[in-house]
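To close the section, here is one more complete example, presented without commentary so you can practise reading it yourself. The ligand is glutamic acid.
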Amino acid sequence: MTVYQHPTFDMAAHQFDLVADHLDIPVNDRDRLKFPKRALTVAIPVRRDDGSVRVFAGYRVQHHLTLGPTKGGVRYHPDVCLGDVAALAMWMSWKCALMNLPYGGAKGGVAVDPRQLSLGELERLTRRYTQELIPFIGPQIDIPAPDLGTNEQTMAWMMDTYSTQTGHCVPGVVTGKPVGIGGSLGRREATGRGVGYLIGRAFETLAIQQSGSTAVIQGFGNVGSHAAFSLAKHGVKVIAVSDFQGGVHNPAGLDLRALDQHVTAQRTVQGFAGGEPIDNANLLELPCDVLVPAAMERQITGENAGRLRCRVLAEGANGPTTPEADVILAERPEIFVIPDILCNAGGVVVSYFEWVQDLQSFFWSESEVMDRLFRLLEGAFQQTLQASRKQRIPMRLAALSIGVKRVWEARRARGLFP
Ligand code: GLU
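Output:
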């Protein structure tokens, strides 16, 4: 099973082993739960604007098929590879199960830097990737969504390519689409707002006043930016924000509207005049009430976990904290961790709502979407917190255990193969 060998897959597998030990899962059931059910690698030839042809590597991994179709994002990033996508698919499985969604986990991606392609090149890449995936995806098979480097436009191209092939409009094949073609109100903001909601709940649990508290956010993409706005609405001061190029810091609080305008114009937070420059490593160690890693995997490591100075660690990204860091955090009970599969679940929850709306051709108002989202997040937050307190285990182990157990029990009910 070395085809998935990758530091991120090793990390997800290690987390799973800890859960399997905790739940006392028999050896015969472990590999079946851990390794993906299906994985596809495709070559995507794209004609560049200058007439040359470049072939990109694309992937889609479906982790388990026990509870329904598989669900998860599509990532465009130069580091995308099979092992990385497989790890992200495994996390999607536990996330969907924790949220009680009728899905297995999936993830896909293309090894490409989307910033280096023109809009036309991106469209051709997306359409060719989708074409290659046609036998592998579908509203009852596997439903892609946006992730790092992809957005509503990417989903519109995917939906159109699939629909053209089918001969009729199939909005339920992807989620995170523009609202005008079967997308859901609130989907774009869902992950960030969910992060904001759960931070509010963590603060209540710890008796921290939101108003006047401070937040540091790594990543100012779809998740980080909406989390920032949602926190600001509750009076939280966002004092530092970064992206892959660098960050800005202002202890008095950043002007988020001005920052957003700067990012729209410059495509980076770097150079924003309303704060001092700060690099990503130093940003993570700033004193604050809540630290939100909302960028990439493996940012909080055995090396820097001991130096975090936050009260709450709210994992907007997937897999931002390594198992070595978890060992250190377990010795630092003053830091309350909202683990990724709970913290960033708002996105896939509203994706589920979008899929349901598409299948029924019956669309909800934004307040219906948000109400239902917060209700589901509240339930999962309480279950996780209760399990963590009752069993005296870290929040991550509690959340993962709830998710893994649901899949394990469903597998036992169904039999050996799904
Ligand atoms: N890419 C998001 C995630 O990691 C959303 C997936 C989805 O909506 O299917 O949770």
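Once you have examined the tokens, check your reading against these statements. Residues 188-343 form a domain with the Rossmann fold fold (CATH 3.40.50.720). The chain has a mean pLDDT of 97.
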